[in-house]
Specification:
By secondary structure, the chain is of the alpha+beta class. It has one domain: Lipocalin (Beta Barrel), CATH 2.40.128.640. Helix content is 22%, strand content 41%. The protein has three helices and ten strands. The chain has an eight-stranded antiparallel β-barrel. The longest helix has 19 residues. It starts with a helix and ends with a strand.
């Protein structure tokens, strides 16, 4: 019983850490490097993506070379209070500003965004704007 309680507490703390996000200033202070459009053009095609939202959801997809993907989400931290897994069709691209952009047609609410991607060690963070106070979220990109 104690083991289950401890596991629940640790899980809550890790969710809280993800929910708090990270600022661009934090990433810069950890020697984060912004990926260029050229870097993104090499990294993104066929990349397996894991996106951790600041609300606590984990979403996954694979960037098809033709600019499409099918995303899945555990929907944790959704505003509805329910955490029913969902999926949606999406598209991705690298825009003229050197940001990674995605649209996802989730069943309840479509999503559209562009993120400047920074790398710190083996972790990636995405930011909607290049302002030190901007809050970002964590991503994983793997081939």
């Amino acid at each position: 019983m104690l083991r289950y309680t401890l596991a629940a507490i640790l899980s809550s703390l890790s969710s809280l850490a993800i929910a708090q996000g990270v600022s661009l200033a934090d990433v810069k202070a950890r020697n984060g490097v912004q990926l260029s459009a050229e870097d993104l053009q090499k990294l993104m095609p066929s990349a397996k993506v894991v996106s951790y939202t600041n609300a606590g959801s984990t979403r996954r997809w694979e960037n098809n070379p033709n600019g499409t993907f099918v995303a899945s989400s555990d929907s944790k931290g959704s505003s509805s209070g329910r955490s029913r897994p969902s999926s949606g069709n999406g598209t991705w691209c690298i825009d003229d500003k050197g940001t990674y952009c995605a649209t996802i047609q989730w069943p309840a609410t479509p999503e559209e965004w562009c993120r400047y991607i920074f790398k710190v060690g083996d972790k990636y963070y995405g930011f909607g704007r290049l302002d030190d106070s901007a809050q970002g979220s964590e991503y994983e990109f793997a081939k």
